[in-house]
Amino acid sequence: MNFSSKLLEDAVHEFSKLPGVGQKTALRLVLHLLNKEQEEVMHFSNTLIKLKQQIKHCTVCNNISDHTICSICAAPKRDKELICVVEDTRDVMAIENTNQFFGVYHVLGGLISPMDGIGPSDLFIDGLVERAAKGSVKEIILALSATMEGDTTLFYLHKRLKDFQIPISTIARGIAFGGELEYADEVTLGRSIITRVPYENSILK
Ligand SMILES: [Zn+2]
């Protein structure tokens, strides 16, 4: 792409770094913003800066939050003895949308993926082990994507958690293999949490 302006080129370059945004789309977005009032563009960029500077991770569950304890962990009505382990905040949102789960979450911040150089120490796993060790957890539901990385992570988590004598279950794989949680429809995802199975029964022998 030949740009008539270096400023334009720089902006397009930044936008094209976003997932799913190619150069053409980036150019369209930048030109769109350029046509907006200065005040509106300032508000847009300030929102992003504020997000980056002020966002926190809940110190209990690691979910993205405005406060040190997220609204789910802080809610008195939620069952703190039932922990649902998920990959990231998108999965929390997907499960919340089902209205079928009333426990709390634990957000790993990714899945174990040796191919991408992501090991257990890159994830918020020690935090989960600490929560399990406190002794007041009655069940841990591992709600991870039905992918190779999801299965590797399930296997590792089970190994780390099994000595605590806490029932560990996995969501029923009505979700097709290769299926990512956030793409499952709400009914399927809601049902898969209700019909969850003990981890031991879920692995092919
Ligand atoms: Zn939390």
Q: Would you summarize the structure shown here?
A:
The protein is 43% helix and 13% strand. With 205 residues, the protein is α/β, with parallel strands linked by helices.
Topology:
Blueprint: H1 6-15, H2 23-34, H3 38-54, E1 56-57, E2 64-65, H4 71-74, E3 79-86, H5 89-98, E4 103-107, H6 125-133, E5 139-142, H7 148-161, E6 168-170, H8 186-194, E7 197-198, H9 199-202
Bound molecules: zinc ion.
Short descriptors:
alpha/beta, Dna Topoisomerase Vi A Subunit, Chain: A, domain 2, 2 domains, two-stranded antiparallel ribbon, 9 helices, 7 strands, binds zinc ion
Please characterize this protein's 3D structure.
The chain contains 9 helices and 7 strands. It is α/β, with parallel strands linked by helices and 205 residues long. It folds into 2 domains: 6-54, RecR Domain 1 (Helicase, Ruva Protein, domain 3, Orthogonal Bundle); 60-202, 3-Layer(aba) Sandwich (Dna Topoisomerase Vi A Subunit, Chain: A, domain 2). It is elongated and about 65 Å long. It starts with 5 loop residues before the first helix and ends with a helix. 26% of the residues are buried. Zinc ion binds next to α4.
Strand order of the largest sheet: 4-3-5-6-7
Global mean pLDDT: 91
DSSP, total strands:
7
Distance between the termini: 55 Å
Helix content: 40-55%
Give the overall silhouette: elongated
Low-confidence stretches: none
Order of helices and strands: HHHEEHEHEHEHEHEH
Largest β sheet strand count, sense and barrel closure: 5 strands, mixed
- Helix count? 9
Strand content: 5-15%
CATH architecture of the largest domain: 3-Layer(aba) Sandwich
CATH topology of the largest domain: Dna Topoisomerase Vi A Subunit, Chain: A, domain 2
The CATH class of the largest domain is identified as Alpha Beta
Class per helix and strand makeup: alpha/beta
